[in-house]
């Protein structure tokens, strides 16, 4: 286990290093370097001022020097400033990361529980299977942001039960969390329902299920005690593959509901030409996603002895 | 009806609707791109079958013109991804060694990263600096999104076609062809590529669904197709601004996206069942 963990962590570090270089190079192609933006905003700045500012911020140096200086800064924990929010990037990351993890974590837990329940329903009652399948197909085809807008129209505009978005000035804001969590959970539930239905149906054809039934075990015990543990592994594997999609889903959900979070921070930074913030937010999102994938993989390995031997 | 038939039928209806957009515009006598302030928030009527949006533009016509964008982007991105992916997978399986390792490491790299955050960053890159038409130019926007989505979509196709090509390259008929003195190019083109087609077809149908969803998401986030050109994604971005004044504007574009994506998914599912029964 220790060797695998070390190898995977090294892989994550290498992926981040390549991503940081590629993204840094890409940012050089983004519209307007910060100095051009400053000139456009203030006509009193002359060409000499611009040259002086570029030299001050190191923008006149060649690309590889800028990249190395930036990486060295990151290694020292200097994340720089956000031009858009006029605050240190490090101060923005903490709250945003917490907000996104709360949203995505709750939604994932809900999607897992409801998805597996739906899958079990389809496996236990074959007559309901086509209905569950149809719900799952629609759920997977539905764009997350449309689902969010529909929920806003139904629960915020027509019924007026819940706020349409944002967060309260004070307090935890549970009522503000309901619609975003529901949106993200419904968007991800479909895949779990389909996957667990297939896994349970496969497990229910195994010989030990026939043995359990022959011993007179009730159908409920057969399903949850005998079939489910074997079906849990493929579902966990899906959870590992889902981490990246969850990060994307959180970005869209945060955009629809105007919720603070990593996805919205990245989106706003990209829209507002705040290159430094965009880069660091992307790297943090990528790191958290890869760590989540690793966590799910390790859990799967811990539960499945066949994977442990290799 | 089979899944394949249902999916293809739905896609055909959607394609026919997209092609008929100019006809519908002539029939109704509006232009879906110019504001008509007298028709703001018009309720559904004979003149505006699905009503009009905040600028008085006909929602049905924008939906039909949006279908052109969504279908064009989805099909073009998926076909480009299929071409690149098949070539990459085939070459990786055939050459093996360093080439194989490089292609597969690149694929692993892209699969490990969260796709949408990366797409957001990529979509924000300024095409004008590369000498391409600036953002907001309708054709330029479509091309930009197709290129970005193809750059991501090839990975899935490449992995599947590599696995299929590896299986095929070790089969008897390939070795027999080699023993008979067939050239490598002939073996790949005549004996391996046809065996990959079922796999590639399934992967391409899935890529169409993924590309249409990704395009609508990017357009919704303001990074894809920019108004006044119509896309289902940017129509929904506009509709979200109007949830209090015109909630019905949000229904149709989302329904259209869902139908199209579900149809592509059905095609993929149906093809898979036909290729490997059971």
The total count of helices of chain A amounts to 13
Kindly state the percentage of residues in helix of chain B: over 70%
What percentage of residues of chain A falls in helices of 4 or more residues? over 70%
Category from helices, strands and their pairing of chain A: mainly alpha
Please tell me what the overall shape of chain B is.
Answer: elongated
DSSP strand count of chain B: 0
Order of helices and strands of chain B: HHHHHHHHHH
Unreliable runs of chain A, pLDDT <50, ≥5 residues? none
* Strand residues, percent of chain B: under 5%
The Rg value of chain B, from CA coordinates, equals 22 Å
Major sheet details of chain A: 2 strands, antiparallel
Biggest sheet record of chain B: none
Note the run of SSEs of chain A as H and E.
HHHHEEHHHHHHHHH
Query: Strand order of the main beta sheet of chain A, please?
Result: 1-2
- Low-pLDDT sequence parts of chain B: none
Which term fits the overall shape of chain A? Answer: elongated
N- and C-termini, Cα separation of chain B? 18 Å
State the end-to-end CA separation of chain A: 10 Å
Oligomer: heterodimer
Please count the helical segments of chain B. Answer: 10
Question: If you had to describe this structure to a student in words, what would you say it looks like?
Answer:
The complex is a heterodimer of chains A (310) and B (278). Chain A is an all-alpha fold. Chain A is 78% helix and 1% strand. Chain A has 13 helices and two strands. In chain A, α5 (89-124) crosses α8 and α7 (144-158) packs across α10 (219-257). The model of chain A has no long low-confidence stretch (mean pLDDT 82). Chain B has 278 residues and is an all-alpha fold. Chain B has helices at residues 3-19, 21-28, 59-95, 97-112, 115-123, 138-169, 172-179, 184-220, 232-241, 251-275. Chain B is elongated, with a radius of gyration of 22 Å. The model of chain B has no long low-confidence stretch (mean pLDDT 83). The interface between A and B is large, with 51 and 44 residues.
């Amino acid at each position: 286990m220790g060797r695998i963990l070390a190898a995977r962590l090294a892989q994550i570090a290498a992926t981040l290093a390549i991503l940081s270089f590629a993204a840094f190079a890409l940012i050089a192609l983004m519209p307007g370097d910060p100095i051009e933006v400053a000139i456009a905003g203030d006509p009193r700045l002359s060409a000499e001022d611009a040259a002086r500012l570029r030299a001050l911020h190191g923008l006149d140096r060649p690309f590889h020097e800028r990249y190395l200086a930036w990486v060295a800064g990151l290694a020292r924990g200097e994340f720089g400033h956000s031009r858009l929010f006029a605050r240190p990037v490090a101060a923005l990351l903490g709250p945003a990361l917490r907000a996104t993890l709360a949203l995505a974590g709750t939604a994932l837990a809900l999607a897992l529980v409801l998805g597996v329940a739906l899958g079990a329903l389809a496996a236990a009652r074959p007559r309901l299977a086509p209905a569950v399948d149809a719900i799952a197909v629609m759920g997977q085809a539905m764009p997350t942001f449309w689902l969010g807008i529909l929920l806003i129209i139904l629960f915020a505009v027509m019924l007026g039960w819940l706020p349409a978005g944002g967060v309260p000035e004070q307090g935890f804001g549970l009522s503000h969390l309901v619609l975003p969590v529901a949106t993200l959970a419904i968007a991800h539930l479909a895949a779990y329902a389909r996957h667990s239905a297939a896994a349970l149906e496969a497990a229910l054809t195994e010989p030990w299920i026939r043995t359990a039934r022959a011993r007179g075990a009730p159908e409920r015990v057969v399903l949850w005690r005998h079939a489910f543990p074997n079906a849990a592994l493929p579902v966990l594997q899906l959870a590992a593959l889902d981490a990246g999609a969850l990060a994307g889903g959180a970005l869209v959900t945060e955009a629809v509901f105007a919720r603070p979070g990593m996805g919205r921070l990245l989106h706003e930074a990209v829209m507002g030409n705040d290159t430094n913030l965009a880069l660091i937010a992307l790297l943090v999102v990528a790191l958290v996603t890869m760590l989540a994938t690793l966590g799910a993989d390790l859990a799967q390995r811990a539960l499945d002895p066949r994977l442990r031997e290799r | 009806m089979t899944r394949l038939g249902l999916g293809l039928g739905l896609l055909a209806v959607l394609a026919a609707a997209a092609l008929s957009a100019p006809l519908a515009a002539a029939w109704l006598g509006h232009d879906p791109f110019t504001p008509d302030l007298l028709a703001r928030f018009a309720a559904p009527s004979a003149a505006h079958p699905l009503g009009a949006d905040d600028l008085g533009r006909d929602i049905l016509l924008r939906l039909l013109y949006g279908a052109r964008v969504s279908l064009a982007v989805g099909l073009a991105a998926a076909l480009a991804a299929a071409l690149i992916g098949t070539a990459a997978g085939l070459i990786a399986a055939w050459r093996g060694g360093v080439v194989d390792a490089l292609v597969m490491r690149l694929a692993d790299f892209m699969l490990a990263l969260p796709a949408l955050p990366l797409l957001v960053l990529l979509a924000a890159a300024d095409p004008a600096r590369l000498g391409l038409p600036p953002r907001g130019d309708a054709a330029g926007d479509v091309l930009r999104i197709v290129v970005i989505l193809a750059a991501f979509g090839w990975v899935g196709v490449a992995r599947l076609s590599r696995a299929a090509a590896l299986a095929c390259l070790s089969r008897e008929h390939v070795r027999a062809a080699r023993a008979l003195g067939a050239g490598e190019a002939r073996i790949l083109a005549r004996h391996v590529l046809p065996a990959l087609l079922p796999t590639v077809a399934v992967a391409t149908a899935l890529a169409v669904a993924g590309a249409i969803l990704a395009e609508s998401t990017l357009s919704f986030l303001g990074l894809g197709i920019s108004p006044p050109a119509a896309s289902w994604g940017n129509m929904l971005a506009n509709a979200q601004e109007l949830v209090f004044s015109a909630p019905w504007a949000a229904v149709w574009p989302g329904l259209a996206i869902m139908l199209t994506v579900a149809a592509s998914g059905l095609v993929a599912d149906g093809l898979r069942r036909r290729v490997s029964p059971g």
